[in-house]
User: What shape does this take?
Amino acid sequence: MIEHEASIHLNRPVEQVFAYLADIRNLATWQANILEQEQLTEGLPRVGTRFREIRRLGRWPTEILAELTVFEPDKRFATKTLTRPQVTVSYSFEPEGGGTRLLYEFVMVTSGMMRLFEPLIARALKKQSVADFERLKRVLEVEHQTASSALPSGKMSAS
Assistant: This one.
């Protein structure tokens, strides 16, 4: 089993950070290994909403089917893969210093030969998550701040 946690402070309100992360269309703006993503269930995200991603894992594109298992607006959401290996990812949001403390938790259940490669996989996942969260911070704090300042109401623009 591979477990990884990360925490980051973002200088944006919880509502904006949650809305941005809960919208699957934004994944490719901050996660480098996303090639495609789509929500398969109609309507707004909720527990049971299914989605499909194609991620570059190593050299190969891999299709992942997953669903939302927890969805508490402005507090937390979690997903679980429906494909192997089983991966659970959760994001929790707390107000902190005028911004948001984001806590990310990742758990991958490995089996068979994959267990032999756990240390390599874990190292690669940690390295990628650091880069992804640095990109998320830049996107939310710099790029969206610039876009929102151009709006008459000062609201964040939709992506």
Remarks:
- Helices lie at 14-22, 27-30, 118-149.
